[in-house]
Design brief:
Layout lengths: L2 H37 L7 H10 L1 H32 L7 H31 L6 H11 L5 H28 L4 H15 L6 H17 L10 H4 L9
Length: about 240
């Protein structure tokens, strides 16, 4: 594809990519609200309390994870657009990563949905049996809450690792190509790291929302002070504030 054709493609697809980023950010925010303010509103501190909360709000939890799956599809579109724009300017970005762009977010969303269905099944088993109270209830809850099945673990792990790799490599190369600021690039790397190393539960979601917001401003050419010259030249150029 010639440089002019690439730039025309980017202009044509920019509204779609920006919309996808907005959907992904909105879904992330809604998901965290549903799970923290509804499902875990009572802040259960025991396995028994957690399973009872999951059983009581199973429908809300399913809606939350379906939304996560929708957000994963939107994230796929965002990463696909940014990957294509970046690789045109930096051929050093391995082309084989496009397969991770297609598969990673889908596996990540599917893994989240399968995981919550497994949790709901365990919670239903616990809530519909005896005992559910006291030390015996806690012991029974711990016994039931073992590791999910291999398909759930494999899907979640593969999706999480693929998405983490994409965040890190695409963000770094987009930063080096001058398509995103250093701040936005570093945010993407942090999100990737926290995807596989959840050191701050919920923190990665907040950072990812900011990252997606930055991309919306870039895709729609509404970045304060103007976005990098690389967007108009089609070549890798230093970000103006670097």
């Amino acid at each position: 594809m010639s440089n002019q054709d690439q730039l025309a493609w980017e202009r044509r697809l920019a509204p779609l990519a920006a919309l996808a980023a907005a959907v992904a950010a909105g879904v992330l925010f809604t998901q965290i609200v549903l799970e923290q303010a509804v499902v875990l509103a009572d802040r259960p501190e025991t396995t028994r309390g957690y399973l009872l909360a999951v059983d009581e709000h199973a429908g809300t939890l399913i809606v939350s994870r379906v939304m996560q799956a929708i957000g994963s599809i939107a994230l796929l579109v965002v990463l696909w657009y940014l990957f294509k724009a970046t690789r045109h300017r930096r051929p050093e970005l391995p082309g084989v990563l496009i397969y991770l762009v297609y598969a990673g977010p889908l596996l990540y969303g599917l893994g989240g949905l399968l995981g919550v269905l497994d949790q709901i099944d365990v919670a239903d088993t616990f809530a519909s049996g005896e005992p559910t109270l006291g030390e015996e209830g806690e012991e029974r809850a711990d016994d039931l809450s073992g590791s999910p099945g291999v398909p759930v673990i494999a899907t979640s792990a593969a999706g999480g690792l693929a998405v983490a790799i994409l965040f890190v490599l695409v963000s770094l190369n987009a930063m080096r190509a001058g398509l995103v600021s250093r701040f936005t690039g570093i945010l993407g790397v942090i999100v990737g790291a926290l995807t596989v190393l959840p050191l701050f539960p919920g923190g990665s979601i907040v950072i990812e929302v900011f990252w997606l917001g930055s991309l919306i401003a870039l895709f729609t050419d509404r970045w304060p002070g103007g976005r990098g010259r690389a967007w108009s030249s089609g070549r890798a150029e230093v970000w103006p504030t670097a």
